[in-house]
Amino acid sequence: MAQVEKLRKASDSGSCFDDEDFDIEANKELTKAVKTFRLKDRSGSASFIDEGSDACDVKQGQLGDCWFLAALSSIAAKDQSGTKVAKIKEDSIKRVLQTGFNTTMLAKGAGGYHFKFFRMGEWVDVVIDDKLPDRHEGKINRAIESKNGEWWVPLVEKAYAKFHGGYNNIVGGETAVALTELSGGIAVDANNLDSTGVNLGDLLKKLQRNSLITTSNRDGAGNEKVTKGLVSGHAYSLLLVDTMTLSDGSKLDMVKIRNPQGRGEWDGAWNDDDTKWADVSDDEKKRLGVVNSNDGSFWMELEDWVDEFENLTICALPGLDVNDEDGDISEEEKNSRDVRVSGTFPPGAQNDPLSGGNNKNPDLSSQIELSVGDYGQTDTRLIWLQILIDSPVKVKRSVLVNFWATTSKSGDDPFNRPQSGTPDFKKLQKVEPVFPNKSGHQPYPYSHNGYLLDVAPGKYLITVSTKLKEPTTDPTNFIVRAMGSNLKLRPVTEAFF
What we know:
- The protein is of the alpha+beta class.
- It has 3 domains: 2-183, no CATH class; 187-315, Cysteine proteinases (Cathepsin B, Chain A, Alpha-Beta Complex), CATH 3.90.70; 338-491, Jelly Rolls (Sandwich), CATH 2.60.120.380.
- The protein contains 13 helices and 22 strands.
- It has helices at 2-13, 39-42, 66-76, 84-97, 99-102, 105-110, 152-163, 175-183, 200-207, 282-288, 302-308, 331-336, 356-360; strands at 36-38, 112-119, 122-129, 131-133, 186-191, 211-217, 226-227, 230-231, 234-245, 251-258, 297-301, 311-316, 338-345, 366-372, 381-389, 397-406, 428-431, 444-445, 450-455, 458-468, 476-483, 487-491.
- The chain has a 6-stranded antiparallel β-sheet, sandwiched between helices.
- β7 (226-227) and β8 form a beta hairpin.
- α3 (66-76) packs across α8.
- The longest helix is centred in the first third of the chain and has 14 residues, at 84-97.
- It starts with a helix and ends in a 6-residue tail after the last strand.
- InterPro entries: Calpain_cysteine_protease, Papain-like_cys_pep_sf, Pept_cys_AS, Peptidase_C2_calpain_cat.
- Keywords: Hydrolase, Protease, Thiol protease.
């Protein structure tokens, strides 16, 4: 808050704001840029936002942060006006961009801007000055301003770099992390799209109403390799999944994808210039929003997308339930759908191997009860869960999370605990999430890990354990979240809470 007040005083007095905490001109360790400039000195026509934020404004420079920009592009993409997802996305991008202040002449005159990002369940203020990396030897180590002179993308990118300790710290990352930190939602990952075991087309058509979606191709070749117009090791926004009707009445499941670089598109079937589009009526193309433009957006058949991409990230927007229909929900209802418990991993619990046995041990894991109530008319329902750990994204940390169903009758201890208080896992049934599509006791790297479960109403046990690559003597705080209607969380064991 001190930085926010400092910026406000500078803007009110008409003086220039200098961010001494993140001075990219004086501290070259913060950025690869050789030259910097102040935006307020660059051009009188430069603005923060004139015509509203849009996915087409997002264009990547030479900084390797496509994972962040793909997430930003997804949240900035326009949705059908009047829907809940459109309203929540609009509220989310306004909260991040703080447009009420950043679009004023006071901000521009002071050369200072204010942003907010989500961390450990709270929205964190980030204030920056308008010093930005300049072009040097044909390279721009930052995002590129929009065609009409809007600079909101390079500025929010700088703020996000400060949020993570420097531009160099956002080179390479997980889109799931960025989606959570931009929206406050819960992001889940799925790899190996050809073996998820679910009908991705049907699932995405259902989830896209209430979610942000990105996709990546991770063949390990690096961004220098381009195959069929697709950049290797690159994150893209997935903007739409829809069924397209051809003129002969046949149907195809299609996906609309956008490259955050704002250029470079798929050149396979159904690319912008493909003659196949002659088989689609003008009315159908208008319905889908098909435009032939070199803006980084393109269409693919669902099957081709599954063949060419390896990773899918879905971020559930805060306050929404998968089964929601369009319509307004109150702020009170929205908050009631985000239930949390918080606790602390002691040092010893972060240094032991991640095994199924240790994950069941209440001295080495956190154990939490999830109560799932009825919602909708189906036997089971999709719900979102997330583990947040107060740990920098560049710190090597693994997590192991398991879910267990109880078959006990109402009134019994749902976890069959003897006097020792430890659940009897022999009488519990393991539940595998829909996403991420892994089974058994598999640890994997921490990245704001989210889960999508398909479960019946009842009580469930969540066991969470974590391990650092390097041993620690410090405790680490964590939060377990569940998002949806009629959900409750509470600790089963008290050791970590």
